[in-house]
Fold these 4 entries.
Entry 1:
Amino acid sequence: MPVPPRPTIFALSSGRPPAAIAVVRMSGPRAGSALEKLTGRVPKPRQATLVRVRDPAAGDVIDEALALWFPAPHSETGEDVAELQLHGGHAVVAAVLDALGTIEGCRLAEPGEFTRRAFENGRLDLTAVEGLADLIAAETPAQRRQAFRQLKGLIGDRAEAWRRQLIEALALVEARIDFSDEADVPEDLIRPALHAAQQLRDEIAAVLADGRRGERLRDGLVVAIAGPPNAGKSTLLNRLARREAAIVSPYAGTTRDVIEVHLDLDGYQVTLLDTAGIRESDNPVEQEGVRRARERSAAADLVLWVIDASAAGGAANGCAEGLLNSEIWLVKNKIDLMDQRPRINAEKRRRDEYKFISSISATTGEGTEFLVTALAAYAKDYFAATESAVITRARHRRALEDTVAALSRALAIDRSGREELIAEELRSAATTLGRLTGRVDVEDILDVIFRDFCIGK
Amino acid sequence: MDGGFDVIVVGGGHAGCEAAAAAARMGARTALITQRFATVGAMSCNPSIGGLGKGHLVREIDALDGLMGRVADAAGIQFRVLNRRKGPAVRGPRAQADRKLYAAAMQQAIRQSPNLTVLEGEVDDLLIDGRAPGVRLADGREFGAGAVVLTTGTFLRGLIHIGERQIPAGRVGEAPAIGLSSTLERAGFPLGRLKTGTPPRLDGTTIDWLALEMQPGDDPPKPFSVLTERITNRQIQCGITRTTPATHDIIRANVHRSPMYSGQIKSRGPRYCPSIEDKIVRFGERDGHQIFLEPEGLDDTTVYPNGISTSLPEEVQAALVDSIPGLEHARIIRPGYAIEYDHVDPRELTPSLETKRKAGLFLAGQINGTTGYEEAAAQGLVAGLNAAARAGGGTPIVFDRAEGYLGVMIDDLVTRGVSEPYRMFTSRAEYRLTLRADNADQRLTGRGIALGCVGPQRARRHRSKLGALETARIMARSLTLTPSEAAQHGLSLRKDGQRRTAFELLSYPDIGVVDLVRIWPRFGELDCRIAEQLEIDAKYDVYLSRQAADVESYRRDESLVLPDDIDYAALPGLSNEVRHKLQVHRPRTIGHAGRIDGVTPAALTLLVAHMRRQQRKPSRGAA
């Protein structure tokens, strides 16, 4: 059996765009031909050469760039490596990554994959690999939240529905295969399965064809400001944003929607969310505000739980319970209104659960500088661990394109008696879609079969 | 203590027989201990072998020179290939067996195995405190060995339920094993409890066969084993009938007396093998459920009514049978029942089916939470090979997910555990198009020859088949023609002037070897098995090379074995979440770690790096 070569991987190997220069690196057996497809040539080994990068399909010039070529084994990974040094804007990087993704046998590298190949080919020592450790220590939750937000920007709330649709289609086909000897499994399940597959393909294709408008290509740390009513959340937002983005009034319940402010914190993109005061209310408009506040806070990377330190006792301050975020900071506001008596409040008992506690006055500005410094430090760690939105987006699009391709292949097998081939293509679609929506396991499929059909002789 | 054996196998069911025979084929001095030799090869439930997914296992057992395929061929009285009209990858050979012929053929195979001694006795306890394992019999005799394979079936604290009645038993009329469960528990093995069931048996002379639809087998019947030339037994037909609304009324009125519904049974039964009362409760809207009436033998009037497994009280069973067309006057020979039994959490095992807690102790069959003769036999085979390897100081013999269904099953068991009795389905195999019943020998016999578990007769046949296949492949890839030449033979191809090979032509859905014969008469000289194989390979060619790439990357990750004693808490750089998941799952390989939800590619790289460093340490010390 001829085994196809190992995939060629590519990645943005410089910092996140926008930046002055962006470096895109390819490694693997097709690195050379990919470079040639994009630039029309393979330069002399190890010599920086000025090239024009074109979209191989449309022929449009994407950018002028420096190209470098390192044939195996004398390269960073021990494989053929090609490198493009581009102008580092979002659009250029995105276009080059998209173009590479269309070349057969090439795919976006997984985080750490270059390092792993280098390591497997004996081109790297252990200390270099352990540099990865810093990245990994923080990556999982932050990256998952970011990927989730990006996905939502691309496909909205449809992820879980698509996954279900595909599982249902697979269950119909697999039932015909594994339980065809069961009297209670109807003869014709393939047609409804293909019908479901076609619907799914059309829906995904529509999202892909929707241009890139729907996607919010914004990297960033999302910080939700939450807390009981009238604790001064909006004042804090305004203090941090230094502008009147939220209407601030002294009456509880003023903020009924989620207000979003983007700011640059030491060069890092941060989105601040001001959420409605979280409290029980009979007012339906306010209830809706509270619901949205909870939802947005849940998807945030960091929650600033703001309380009124001058209020009597902890009861009025509520607590952050119900927020499942792992990173919650306690911000004690209105210290300017506090008398000097030390106060033992209910929050004290929860101290350990906060990663950071600060005391400020959002009105006078006292203590806010320290809070800003802490936020900037947090942002720095966060950005070190997460992937650029440009990459995430390319990954998502590629997964959806692969899913559409697999579904189309399944639909093209329009022959009875080839259930196993249809199933094979649907499984392939489930694998690629599963990268976005969560893995599709054989148990998920069996669950549906046993739920819908009376199996068992 | 008698130490004259290398391997001791406890239990003479489907797992035990394969385990003992496999260990013996490997040259280990093997003892099979069973309560009574007469029960060896008993089919406690349905009188059939194979089916979808299961048929693959039987072919794989045969490919490794195991017994089940040959014995089923000797005992088969109706052969059918299921999914015959679907693609070859999902076809499942199945045979109904004459119960007495099956037991006789299995007993003969065991008796004829060199290196294999059968001991009749009741194993009272397992001796696993010492360095080498052993067993103590009820009569006080003790045996030690290099390895012990435990195949207890449903005997571990077996408890039969018929209506409100409970009878401690491993099978009807046979005592359960109580002591073994306690010994395993004391040794720290987590035990679970599962349930399975069987229908009442009917007297075939009291069935109105003329009123029933009859189902014949395939003609000619296709044997399981590549060593079987043809099936010689007389072939029979099965009857088909259905439950009626009256049946359902009887069940509904009495369902509270079923131990499954009265709360008497709490353990989990298989969803794919529900009792008739389950079917009525869960799918009550259906007007009837199909029942296959399967004769249990050529000179045996017992009939197995496939589809009405039940543990309702006997008088209710009688009433419900009477309500079924054709069975109005049928007499029940033996009531159906449910049985609960202990099993060990299979995550306690390595992929060679050895327990992690006690070196030299192997478990196979229902004790590992599986159901079915074929699943048991396949595990028995793997456990037997490994017990022999362990006793002989060899390395573990592991079959991976890309080699066969037996690898898929064992990997599922040892990495995921079970929540209901585990049964093989083709959908569990991710490389389903590659792992077919038709190529089981090509996948496994070569490996079996290298391991030493394949006898000379099979090895000879195998080599000559491979040679013939290779010749046919070379021929098919070297003969070519143009579209216009094809048109002269009545084949319409795209007129692109490209020459195509015979193999490429075969990959078209509507071109077969028969069509090639018209162009190149040499194809007519091929043995029909070789021609069939060539055609299947060509039809799946595109998919097979895609799967080959997947298999390669799977194997690359599976080859990186994580040490058992790896301390994830001390491994710098892992996030808490990943660390926790690794600690809970304790993956065996990088591939396994990668299949755990939430373990990222970068974390895997870190694990790989850690492993390399650990491997370097000792060599540095030695230098």
Note: The first strand of chain B starts at residue 7 and ends at 10.
Entry 2:
Amino acid sequence: MPMGGSGNDPERARRFRDAALPHLDDVYTLARHLLRDATDAEDAVQECYLRALKHFDSYRGPAMKPWLLAILRNVCRAEFARRASSATAPIDDVPDDAGQTPLWHETQETPETQVLRRRDATTIRRLVADLAEPFRETFVLREIQNLSYREIADVVGAPVGTVMSRLARARAMLRAAWMAEEEQPT
Amino acid sequence: MTCDEAEILLHALLDGELDAGHAREVEQHIATCPRCAAQLRSYREMSNAVSDADLHYIAPAALRRRIEAALPQPRQPLPVMA
């Protein structure tokens, strides 16, 4: 069934297609990192584009990519809620002050930069996936989507200061996990 | 600047999010603080490693087709009646 929106205007659909579809890989990338499941990610992206088309007439900016990512994020929040209510998968959304990891965790005798370079893509992907949700989200928006702090703040609906502290926490936790793997190889 | 203040700001420095004045302040602190300097190097290396790993995904072709198909299609020209 064609997406609805306000009418079946092909010209409007063409403008939407030209503006939104070039960002499909970025939207799908965020969905994969947030939901950690390929099928759920596909469903979320399709729902995102459906909602985006519906609201396209009211779109006045910011840039198209952050706008789409914000919609995708809302779709994913609904999915988190559904998972939580079905209790088949734990929700890992934790408050910012939970599980404090010292930012100045001094450890290794090994040259750290060598350790950091040694990680392969599969391991890095897993370590990022293991980050708790609000930190993973901010990390992915910054490190993979290359959004500015202002754009991230708009996408997640939080002040820039919160974005900065979440990003610092995300990197500190990722670094700690990275170094822990080195100390305790599996 | 204290290490506590630098704790957050060195990430903003790494991300190019600081204006010239604040960037200079953080850089001055890092120049005199081996611990914060090591932190910045460490996070920069990690950021480079994440970038090199390329954590992007490509949307499946079937998903792209589904979304394309769900958009209102351009009007087809009416068949010419003889």
Note: Chain A touches chain B through 55 residues (CB under 8 Å).
Entry 3:
Amino acid sequence: MEKTTTFTVPDKPVNITNEQVIVVEHLRKSFGEKVVLNDFNLIVEKGESMVVMGKSGIGKTVLIKCIIGLLKPDGGSLKVFGKDISTLSRRDLDLLRLNIGFVFQSSALYDSMSIRQNLEFPLRRQKIKPVKGDIDKLVRESLKSVGLENTIDLMPSELSGGMRKRIGIARSLILKPEIVLYDEPTTGLDPITSKEIINLIMELQHQSNTTSIIITHDVGLAKEASNHIVFVMDGIAYLQGTYDEVVKTKDPRVKPFFE
Amino acid sequence: MSKQNTAKKAYLSKTLDPFFESAAQLASFGWRSVREAVYPPFEFQETFRQCYIIGVNSLPLVGFTGLILGLVLVLQSQPTLVEFGAGSYLPAMSSISIIREVGPLVTALICAGKIGSGISAEIGSMKVTEQIDAMEVSGTNPFKFLVATRIMACMLMVPILCIYADLLALMGAFLGSNINGTVNFSFFFNRVFEALHFTDIFPSFIKTFIFGFAIGLVGCTKGYNSQNGTEGVGMSANESVVVSMLSVIVIDMVVTQISGMLGYI
């Protein structure tokens, strides 16, 4: 288990089991003439922290949006907890989504709501499986876990980019999901804030032992947070392995990414 | 010759395709919003919140416009009516014009500009900043929560705003006819209510529901289909105003024709 010498981060999650929580087989997705994913295959095991890398516009975000059912695949199969996403009813999909957190690239905080209302939203909206317990307490605990208790009554426009990311993470984790999908969590942040976000992700993963898929271009994040790296290219999982394996590749199409 | 035909067909297709695509999109959105609105779970709280935002915030603009509209209508028509010795018909003429046509139409056009663009811009910016996706992954049906509630709120509030504008326009008409200090308040409104019949009020009231539906539907459809970042949001807001204003005018024409065929004119 590798640790950085420049800044302290919690250990990577180690409780990986052989239980396959996400199985992607021969996934295809196109937008008009443009084929984004073509025969894409991927298996994510429980407790794993998988980093998905690749050039911009290659289909990384499309992949996780297919996993959570925001985009419908054109072909292939995509199973989460053994359930085929494309065949689920609206209700079953909502039920499944209770177990999946999604951290958006833009944080996607609701502009018209305060931070409290942003965090309360997923809790209050659960009609299928209403949340039991004190919602205010849950919101405060969640804010505390990302170190932003004092922002509870602020509006998203009053926060910095890094704070918005943290609140986005807190909102995604408030329902205590088993899988968390991070879409470029450190993009657009300065190096110090990026490191804070990396530490936060690691810490939260360590605490709750979630399964994570992290989309990123940030080699630092890939190094710190990954058990497994998948390099996406030409619509397929072009290269897979641990960070050390991938970084040593001699493939001329991948090598420049890590230089 | 065949090259010319191909070029003509291509031109026609380029011109008409976006129109039919837009019409199909509106029809599909309309159908889905009706379905989402009638099937539980119902979003009462959000619908009432939208009613407040759409209705209460539009009161000053709609009210002021109505007042000025009635005033100007009377000031413009009074000299002609007096010249023909028909000055006493002023309350009846102005009230029928206001209730039947001018009040609902002008109020709906104002709402198309104010409410339609607001809805489109709000939903559009939520779309491009992934807030709608965030809502969806939180287990909320964004179509029900954002679209159905706003269309319902428009259908409820546009008729109320029209009634409010009509009342203020009648007050404006009274002020206009009373500028020279010759018309008594009770006399004016007695003549107004004598002139108005159920057949004047009913079609006009029904029309305002359809205006509300069209304004809400166009605003939501354009906003929900916003693309290409903030520029796209601006374009959708703009398109929303243009399409909803055109829809209001077309609906007005159709409803007037149908009212005439049913003997309401």
Note: The first helix of chain B runs from residue 2 to 38.
Entry 4:
Amino acid sequence: MAANEEPQLPPVRAQSLLSDDERELLTTLASEYDLTFDELDRLIEHERSMQGMGRRPRIHVWIQRHIAEIAERRLQAK
Amino acid sequence: MIIRRLQMRNWGPYAGDHEVTFEKPRGKRVIQLIRGENGHGKTHLLRAMVIAVQGRDGMRIVEPESRAGGTSTKAHLDAFLHDALTIGAEDEAEPQMRLAIELEDGDDTIRLERSWWFDGRAVGDEELVVVLNGSPYDPAASDARDRYEEKQALVRARIPENVMQFFFFDGEEIKTIAENDPTDEVTVGLDALLGLTLLEELRTDVENARSRLAKEEVAGKRAAAEIQLLESEISELEASQVELTDKISEQKVAAVEIETEIEELQQRLPTGARTLEGKDEHRTDIATRIQAREADRENVRRRIGDIVANDLAILYPKALLAKTVKRLQGEQACRDWERQRELMVPERAKLSDRMYGKGAPQPDPPLTKSQLAFYRDRLIEEWKNILQPPPKGIPKDQWLTGFSGEELEAAQLRLQTATGDGAGDLDAAIREDAAIGDQLRALTDRLENYATDQDTRVVVEKIKQASDRLGQEKRAIQELEAQLQELGGVLGEKRREHGTKVAQSTDSEETRERLAVAHNIIDVVAQFRDQLKRRRVEDLQSDIQEMMAALAHKGADQFHSVVIDPNTFQLSIFDVEGQQVRRLSAGEREILALSMLWALGKISRRALPIVIDTPLGRLDRRHRTNIVESFLPHAAEQVIVLATDEEITLERRRLLKSWISGDMELVFDSDSRTTQVRQAEAVAK
């Protein structure tokens, strides 16, 4: 698999492991750092779905891409 | 998530093929009872479910010592699996051992099937088939190992291994936890179950990404510095390129000048000369020929003089000449002559002298061809006019004023003679004189332009020197052009490098932004992890306390509240009076452990079934009743209880009646040492 190829995840049903209060906490913290809940939740969900796969390079690629997307949005917003 | 079916082949006492179907929970009927005596296969059933879900890694759940001590080596696993194989099943049809479990997870159905062989191949090479909603899951990977790992990942995404251990456990497990310091379990549970491990791993992964970005940023800064250096180098190279180009142009101009010089020198060489020597001899020949032609011209002119003197001059009277000239001045035909009058006047005087004064012909200054022609034509014409009768109306005496009759007669007589031969001779002589003049001029020009041998040698030497210089110039140009080409290559390379660095440098702004985002994510995740930990520890505390209160033997058990240090996870128990309880009874420890497991399972927010083997263990009657009443019906969406009849007595079954969805018994054949799973009703019949 090429390093920049989109990781093919197994068909995992996305479900947040956070309660409403915890989601609110994450949202508040995220906004203080110019981030959104969704941006962080995607990271958490992805990390969770990749657990145990023994494919760390995949998650590294994915995280870098995710960071790049957020950065691009921020640059466009400036 | 609930378990719907379990299939076993040659799994411990379950010889051959067995299928256990679990009733679907209906309303509050969540408890599936499976009763059996000790040693009849309850623990094998629990282990079958765990191994069917997790495969070989599930051994860490069913073998607590491997979890604590890390003894899950391949040999250990092989031994474990081999021990699980029904005695004497090695020779059975393939595969010798198989476990399959069917799960319902929301709208999804998942079937996991694991098979093992004991015919010499590696026991650890278990085969895994995952069927999701009726379709076999076909991972993208081609390598068998990778395919297995991807299937495992699918399973773990649904039922993480470190979570499962808090849902599938036996009484021995509870006892072990209760007898040991529970702090370790809390620590593991909090890290894994509370999502802290997940957040920590995420933080580490983002940290890795940040490190890469930091390196990129450094590379970008380095690129910016290198760009300056490169631009300086390129500028110098471009200046050198211009300098070289100018130099080449100058050299080419110099070469062209030398070529022109050579051409001019070559033109100075005698035309058609086949050799460079002998020019002096040619010059002598030309000079001799000039002398000869000059002699010829002198003779011709002497002859002209003779003709004029003898045949014409004497016939031209002085008065008539004056008159003629005067008249000629008015003639239209003599305009050209008039223009040359200034020349004609002295010539006329000389002619007059020759005719009438000295009478001798003068070769020098020579008459021009036109002069001689003019004189001749005019003289002849005038004499013809003289000899003609006067025009009508003009008296004869007025026609030729100043001539005596004798003169006219004598002139007429001489003219008749002269015009016969003299005029023709004069004409021929004049033409001959002109031709000789032309030849002389040509010869003189030729002689003037004809190089001497010495001149030729000098020119040839100059040509040689110029050619040498031209060669040098051309070689220099070639060298310069080679240098220019080489320089062009270097320049191109530098420009490409510059382009690359500029691209790197241009990316740096984006890299800085990404770096900032990565920093923010790390900070947020770290803060969130800390706050989440604190909140969930509080929840855990509250849940443990709640379950402990429900399960405690009121009045006998001393614990009242639990406090967990969010930093150290140290668990402290306090009695009603707020005093810390240092020692717990065996029953209290088991209740505490069960409460912890329940609370951890609850806080993990995983809707997994709970499977408990021998849940009541060593508990006393009151504690057992509390667990049956307060724990089992509310533990999960599906609770599978593997118990002896001593634990779940008929009385307790009645107590649980409205929560039980199914009741099965393990029927053990002591002769064959095999077990069958049957519905309790069937047994009752």
Note: The first helix of chain B runs from residue 42 to 54.
